[in-house]
Amino acid sequence: MAIGQVLATAVAGLKASALKVNVAAANIVNRDTAGYKAQHVRTLSQVTSQPFGGGGVVARVIADSETGGEVDLAREFIRLIEAEAAYRANVGVIRAVEDIERESVDLIA
Predict the structure, then answer these.
(1) Each residue of 58-98: pLDDT tens digit?
(2) How many CB atoms are closer than 10 A to CB 37?
(3) Which pTM value belongs to this model?
(4) Other CB atoms closer than 10 Å to residue 48's CB: what's the count?
């Protein structure tokens, strides 16, 4: 997998984490709103091969939301913690790729 693909996957993960935080925050804020149904985010990691020598494997994270039942505050805070952990992990991937690129440039120069 090329560095650009790794970065694209990490950025997709950051976006998915941001969506999870936004949905959890909306659920918490609207908990006491009459008729409000909790929303949930589903994520899917997808790895596909590009045909005809188009650069190998492409990985991406797909996130969408769905509407469910009542808001459970404990569950929403757990989702916030999970989203934070995933966000930090993706930032770590981006930093690692930056380090690898920097070292590669130093070796070439």
Answers:
(1) 556 677 767 878 899 999 999 999 999 999 999 999 999 99
(2) 14
(3) 0.76
(4) 9
Q: Token pair for residue 109?
A: 């120069």
Cα 30 to Cα 18, 23, 24, 74, 100, distances in angstroms: 18, 10, 10, 15, 44
Core vs surface per residue 63-84: b (16+ CB within 10 A) or e: beeeeeeebeeeebeebeeebe
Q: How far is CA 103 from the centre of its chain?
A: 27
Contact (Cβ atoms closer than 8 angstroms) between residue 101 and residue 3:
yes
> 3-class secondary structure for the chain?
CCHHHHHHHHHHHHHHHHHHHHHHHHHHHCCCCCCCCCEEEEEEEEEEECCCCCCCEEEEEEEEEEECCCCCHHHHHHHHHHHHHHHHHHHHHHHHHHHHHHHHHHHHC
Amino acid in the structure at residue 83: A
Token pair listed for 95: 């930093």
Q: What backbone phi and psi angles, to 5 degrees, belong to 32?
A: -95, 10
